[in-house]
Amino acid sequence: MTRTGDQSYIKNLNRSIVLNLLRYQGPLSRVEIARRTGLTKATISSIVDELISEKYVSELGHVSSSGVGRRAVLLEFNPAVGSVIGVELGVDFIKVLLLDLSARVIKITESSIQETQNPEYAVGQMSEMVKSAIADAPDSPLGVIGVGIGIPGLVDAKRGVVLNAPNLRWKDVHLKSLLQYQLGLPVVLDNEANAGAMGEQLFGAGKGVSNMVYLSIGTGIGTGIILNNQLIRGEGGIAGEFGHMTIDRSGPKCSCGNHGCLETYASEKAMLDRYEQLAGTRKSLSEITRLAQSGDASATAAIQSAASYLGIGIASLVNGLNPALILIGSRVGPASHLIIDTVDETVRDRSFTEPYSPTRIQNSALGDLTCAIGAASLVLHDHFSGPAA
Ligand SMILES: [Zn+2]
């Protein structure tokens, strides 16, 4: 059905255009908003008055406008008008962030969890952590506007159902309805890499980039793809499972049931296994990272071996999608340059887009907060997206 242009629809649409302009490009004067949107000064004035009275926008001060000597008042988005909560559910941890509405972190809580494989227990712990974050939220006109959650697995984002998370061993968990009932707030969920891609595009290294891919290297490998500014979900909402592309049909068995998936060669577990093979002893990822930083040959080779396989997978993504930017999120911290350098070299060797339209490959900017900030950004996206067309 085509939406007709009734008055309230147009008003809400214009309001969201002005508000989002101030969120991403403010502070701006009323005259500048009129120039950039093409809306009349009267319309801008009425929208701005409303936004100021609702505390979404505040007047910042004066700036000389060119030529005529008059001074214009600058308007800026007020991120303290409310707060939002972003959650990352990991395989062995839960991270909860309290943020303002510009996605600036107010408080981080993390706890390790041994029983994520028991959904009821994990949901209970997550709910307690979120309630405590809500209690810590500063007083504000809107209060906490919602909770976003990033999940390492297949998610039906529309229904809020975790369809299948092999590393958590969750199937068909109705997480959104469970949590909404316990918290009394809107809850949004998505795959962790989709959330990460959104977070990086809105608030991280992907600002202003229309075609980008975010890969998260953890227990598994997640991929969030944004093309023409749209997160690609596919027909059933499960697009982006490139961690399960087959690298070797007779390779080791993957958590998904197939053999030789990219994930079995390039995830954190692959790094730990490779290090054990080379050094004869098993160490944790943080120990291997530390060793690699101090020049240890086995630790360096373990990280580079995983990165080289990752590069092979990413070269296929680059050939297939031609993104401007690939962002990699990992937990190897200061040793992440080893991953970036090796991936970069492998992709340059193997992709067609070089030298015509080279893809930049770099670390995610939001680091180990990418997923949780991304999950919060999904709530912000819903809150500020304006009326549906
Ligand atoms: Zn697999």
From TrEMBL:
Stored InterPro entries: ATPase_NBD, HTH_MarR-typ, ROK, ROK_cs, WH-like_DNA-bd_sf, WH_DNA-bd_sf
Family: Belongs to the ROK (NagC/XylR) family.
Keywords: Carbohydrate metabolism, Xylose metabolism
Gene3D superfamilies: 3.30.420.40, Winged helix-like DNA-binding domain superfamily/Winged helix DNA-binding domain
Chain ranges of the HTH marR-type domain: 16-57
Role, per record: Transcriptional repressor of xylose-utilizing enzymes.
Lineage: Bacteria, Bacillati, Bacillota, Bacilli, Bacillales
Protein source organism: Alicyclobacillus fastidiosus
Pfam families documented for this protein: MarR_2 (PF12802), ROK (PF00480)
Name of the protein described by the UniProt record: ROK family transcriptional regulator
Keyword Aminoacyl-tRNA synthetase: no
CDD domains: ASKHA_ATPase_ROK_BsXylR-like (cd24076)
